[in-house]
């Protein structure tokens, strides 16, 4: 019982301690480098009529891991609340594989298999708004933040599939065409960081952030349905913070 009372009093005193001298600064700039944005797998399937049956298409999009650069500008509304806006830049490899089941022109229910692949780069700029809760004790500070995010992405996307099916039709091959497509979407992001300040204006921080977002890319030809790609994930990074 005494131990619980002691811990409660210690926490109460800690939260009542004044901010460090740097806490009076209103404007802050943060620059960080983060890693850990994991790869994702997205599957798209569709059908197209052919020879009184349906061709079956399955497109697998695999995105690789990514690092990112983050720059943000913030303003302290009070001792414990702040607002921030920032931008995250990242790109990752995009590898796509298309598997097709093509009906036979003369034999019913006798599909032939064909596959094709292509590689691209998924580039994304994330613009975000943060609502920040700030707790500072001496030279240390913990920030918990969350807010909406705007994802602006581009990638080479499958735009058309040409089927080569010549007599005697024992095998079939395909060729793929791609087109660069840009897409914007809304998502969310949230996280926390631990800061240590060397002086009134300079500090370092460790940060963990979760990005939640996706975009549906629509090929311009209209022959391939929209392709949905995941854009988010968890990142862990470190950086510098400047306060004015």
Shape: rod-shaped
Q: Say what the CATH topology is.
A: Porin
Number of domains: 1
CATH architecture: Beta Barrel
The end-to-end span amounts to 45 Å
**Mean model confidence by pLDDT:** 88
Radius of gyration: 26 Å
Q: What does this molecule look like?
A:
The protein has 244 residues and is mainly beta. It has a single domain, classed as Porin (Beta Barrel), CATH 2.40.160.20. 6% of the residues lie in helices and 70% in strands. The chain contains one helix and twelve strands; from the N terminus they run αββββββββββββ. The chain has an eight-stranded antiparallel barrel. A two-stranded antiparallel sheet has the order 10-11.
Question: What would the keywords be for this entry?
Answer:
244 residues, mainly beta, Porin, eight-stranded antiparallel beta barrel, two-stranded antiparallel ribbon, disordered N terminus
Blueprint of the fold:
Layout (H helix, E strand, L loop, with lengths): L1 H15 L10 E11 L2 E11 L2 E11 L2 E11 L4 E22 L9 E26 L2 E25 L8 E25 L4 E11 L1 E4 L9 E4 L2 E11 L1
Antiparallel strand pairs: 1-4, 1-12, 2-3, 3-5, 4-5, 5-6, 6-7, 7-8, 8-9, 9-12, 10-11
């Amino acid at each position: 019982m005494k131990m619980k009372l002691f811990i409660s009093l210690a926490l109460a005193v800690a939260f009542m301690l004044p901010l460090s001298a740097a806490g009076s600064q209103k404007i802050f700039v943060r620059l960080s480098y983060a890693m850990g944005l994991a790869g994702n797998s997205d599957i798209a399937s569709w059908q197209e009529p052919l020879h009184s049956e349906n061709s079956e298409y399955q497109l697998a999009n695999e995105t690789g891991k990514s690092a990112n650069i983050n720059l943000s500008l913030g303003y302290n509304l009070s001792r414990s609340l702040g607002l921030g806006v920032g931008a995250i830049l990242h790109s990752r490899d995009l590898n796509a594989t298309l598997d097709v089941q093509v009906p036979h022109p003369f034999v019913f229910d006798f599909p032939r298999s064909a596959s094709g692949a292509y590689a691209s780069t998924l580039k994304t700029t994330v613009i975000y708004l943060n609502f920040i809760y700030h707790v500072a004790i001496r030279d240390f500070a913990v920030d918990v933040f969350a807010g909406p995010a705007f994802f602006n992405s581009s990638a080479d996307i499958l735009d058309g599939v040409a089927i080569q099916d010549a007599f005697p039709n024992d095998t079939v091959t395909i060729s793929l065409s791609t087109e660069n497509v840009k897409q914007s979407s809304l998502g969310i992001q949230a996280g926390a960081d631990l800061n240590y300040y060397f002086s009134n204006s300079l500090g370092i921080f460790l940060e963990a952030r979760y990005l939640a977002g996706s975009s549906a890319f629509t090929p311009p030809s209209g022959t391939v349905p929209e392709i949905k790609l995941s854009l988010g994930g968890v990142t862990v990074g470190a950086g510098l913070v400047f306060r004015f």
